[in-house]
Fold:
Amino acid sequence: MPLFGRSLVPTTSYGYQAPPDVIVIGWHCPGVECGRAEDIPPRRWPTWCDSCGTAVDPRFADPWAHYARRLELDFIITSQGTDSATRQMMMVESDVWYYKDALLRRDLASAYAARRGLRSTTARIVQADPYFVPRTGYFLVVWHAIESGDLDGAADELLAWHPTVVTHDVDRNNATRTTARQFTDSCVQFLEDTNGSRHPAGRQVYAAMLNVAGQIRGVLTSRNQQAIARVVGSRQYG
Ligand SMILES: [Zn+2]
Structure:
């Protein structure tokens, strides 16, 4: 028992009220330009940030973290004070959330719809902001897809991602360099997955990986190079 008895976890700044049996794993400060986070749960509520004095939000274990994130994303997207770069990022994350949520419920039709939703969101953002590099959405969806065994989804996303990967300025541009590296890493993750390696799109993903790797040879990290060499060395696709 906590020293001061059980205190109900407060409603978060973005409107999530956790049930009494929630597991709290730390706190996060929602203060503007603060964002401090700690991994130790406070001993009592409310608790104030020792950097800026704002009342802090609890951080939860799953599945509560997943439910809370939905409300937090909606809150950030609809808040007037949210800058456009953050709103773009949160809109992408929002669609990724719907995808992950559908996978958790093993609802493949909704998972597919969420991936289509993310494509539309990305197209809208790119139309409004030509400098936007679509990376995080593809990367996260591929990651969740492989984790939960939606290999059709992972292959589809990788092959849709491939033509958007820009490689001509990777020496000077951190965003395109990171994207291209993440793309080859994601292909490796797919190709080294037991089910990915047997997937009918395996050869296409392999070709896409080699295509991008060949164009960014000079900026591949040694970890990138080793991962690609492992896949090539397996002689499963060549
Ligand atoms: Zn703070």
